């Protein structure tokens, strides 16, 4: 289909990763020698290690190309986050509620409210506002904040920045200068 832009490089990375994971499992056999690195078990390293290293190197090379040509459409990402009525942020709200009622009760409450949101095709925020239990536990300003995807990133931004700095220091020729559409 000419209109499609298939991410074949991404599919290749997934394939190489699957191969490496499968083959690397054979290395566990090398970890169980009968007596002080007896013959037999360690020879598996000769075949598995080069294949895993080659697959990893190939994946990393493709990832460099993928990220160099990556274009991020922020508006489309926002639209995608709203496709399921805000349910993608139910865990964030659950963690907020857990501070008040404990994780298990918060999970049960959010499970019920998420199901209601989905069944009635209502935004999760509206369902939360209408629910007496949720509204008594947390003020709506905190709930609105918990429903904001940009506020629930954890350590991801810090880790991403550190990764980029580390990458640039190791491979300056593959650094940010060639990236398109990515803001570090």
UniProtKB/TrEMBL annotation:
Q: What is this protein called?
A: Adenylosuccinate lyase C-terminal domain-containing protein
Statement: the UniProt record of this protein carries the keyword Lyase: yes
Adenylosuccinate lyase C-terminal domain ranges (all copies): 85-164
By its UniProt entry, which SUPFAM superfamilies does this protein fall under? L-aspartase-like (SSF48557)
Q: Which GO terms describe its molecular function?
A: lyase activity
Residues in the signal sequence: none
SMART domains annotated for this entry?
A: ADSL_C (SM00998)
* Lyase among keywords: yes
Q: Which key words tag this protein in UniProt? A: Lyase
Fetch the Pfam families from UniProt.
ADSL_C
């Amino acid at each position: 289909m000419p209109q499609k832009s298939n991410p074949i490089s991404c599919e290749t990375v997934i394939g190489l990763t699957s191969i490496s994971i499968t083959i690397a499992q054979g290395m566990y056999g090398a970890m169980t020698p009968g007596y002080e690195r007896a013959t037999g078990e360690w020879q598996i390293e000769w075949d598995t290690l080069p294949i895993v290293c080659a697959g990893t190197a190939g994946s990393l090379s493709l990832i460099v190309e993928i990220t160099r040509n990556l274009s991020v459409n922020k508006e489309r990402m926002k639209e995608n986050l709203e496709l399921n009525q805000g349910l993608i942020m139910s865990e964030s709200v659950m963690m907020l509620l857990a501070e008040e009622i404990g994780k298990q009760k918060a999970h049960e409450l959010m499970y019920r409210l998420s199901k209601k949101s989905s069944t009635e095709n209502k935004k999760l925020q509206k369902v939360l506002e209408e629910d007496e239990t949720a509204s008594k536990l947390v003020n709506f300003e905190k709930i609105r904040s918990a429903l904001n995807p940009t506020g629930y990133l954890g350590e991801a931004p810090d880790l991403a920045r550190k990764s980029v700095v580390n990458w640039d220091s190791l491979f300056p020729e593959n650094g940010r200068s060639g990236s398109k559409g990515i803001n570090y």
